[in-house]
Structures are given as structure tokens and as C-alpha cells.
């Protein structure tokens, strides 16, 4: 029964947005965006708390909401880590342990609405703003992002090309906002009127059109070295996203994995990251 309800719920939302759009396209778009930006999970689980509690913790404030930060001190270069959607900083545990062995200085944080951070909404723009505050505070040399964190990493570098960041790692990241919106539309079955409203919402609130938000376009301006890792059978973000990113990012290396899925936290992946950082 629960599975049946979970299957029907997205369709109910889509139907609601379709009806609402007949009266107010703007209101329908606002509610569709709010749902799109609301994570359903990603808070710190009891089994994750012990590891995160070993770090030096603090909070920064972004749009008046507290963002939880973690610091594992080291004497080498500083690495900034950005996790993906409905996750938290714990997802980096295995990589953090490897980085600690090499004495890197490590900064991670829970995205807004995730982990121990405040709020219940998150999007790439607020995520990037949070990351930039930490870049300004700690001057990291390296930035590593997984999934939405990878998307945010690319977007942040596009906005701030002259920051302290020297190398960038993107793991299993989507490339185009239009693809995310297409998936969202297919999942909820809302009509093109709602989608047009969402496009106008993005323009009115963020001064960008859906089709203009593209990591492959942004990366065309990059000169810094980049490592892109993506599994060819990723069912969350298509491998083609990283192919396009690599094609436009002239100073990047693309590594295709097989059978590692979307998470990309395996030993082989972490070793590739360490090799890239030390070169």
C-alpha cells in the first residue's frame, strides 16, 4: 500500500499544479519550485553522528539560516567537499579518512535543509552561496562535489573564476537544468503551462532561463584542471552529462567507471581523486 501511495503522490502534485496554473501560472510555478527544492531526507542519522562529531564543528549563516560546517585539521592544502541531494557531509567519510592519511586540511558542510543545517529548502544558488562563504573563510585549493554538489561546484567556479580554487573534481553530476526539469515534469506529469511558469520563475527570481543553466556552457570558460568521474550506468545522472562537460572543459580528464553506480565512494574512485590532487 505504501508503495502504491508513493507512486500516486507525484501524480497528485502534478494534477494540482495543472489545475492551479489555469488560474495563476505564477502561483503554480512557485509551488512547483518549492516542491522541487524540498529534500525529503538527508538529515544526520544516529549511525552517522559519531563520525561527524569528531570534526571541529561550527556554523555559518546564509540567508539568515545556519549552515553546519565540519573541519578536520591538517597541514597540507585545504580541500572543500560538497555532497549531493538528500545527503550530508557523512557521505565523504571514506574519502575524508584517505585525505587525513595524507594530512590534508578538510572542510565539509551540510547543504541548507540537509544534515544539521537549518531550513527545509535547497537549490544550487543557495548551495553555491554557502560554498563561497567557506571559500572566503578557508581559501581552499581544491573543491570536490558529488551529484548536485558537483553541479554546484561547476556553477560556483563559473561565478568566481578568480577564487583560491586550483583544482576541481566533479563526481556523477548532472549538467543541464533543462534535463532536471524534464525529469521533474515527467515524474509529476504537469503540463507545459506549469513548465513555462517555472521558466519565468527562474528568470524573475534568479535572472536565468532554464535552458541557459548548463555546466557544459559554464566550463567552456575554465582553465583550471578538472577531474570528472562518472559511471556509465548511472541511473540518477546520465553519463552523457559528464561527456558534455568534459568536451567543453579543455583542461579536464574524464574517467568512466562501470558498475559503481551513482554514489562513487569506492576505494578506486578515492584513489583517483588523491592521485589527481597530488600531481
UniProtKB/TrEMBL annotation:
GO cellular component: membrane
Domain AB hydrolase-1: 78-223
InterPro entries per UniProt: AB_hydrolase_1, AB_hydrolase_fold, AB_hydrolase_sf
One Pfam family matching this protein: Abhydrolase_1
PANTHER family given in the database record: HYDROLASE, PUTATIVE (AFU_ORTHOLOGUE AFUA_2G14860)-RELATED, MONOACYLGLYCEROL LIPASE
Protein name per Swiss-Prot or TrEMBL: Pimeloyl-ACP methyl ester carboxylesterase
Taxonomic lineage from the root: Bacteria, Pseudomonadati, Bacteroidota, Flavobacteriia, Flavobacteriales
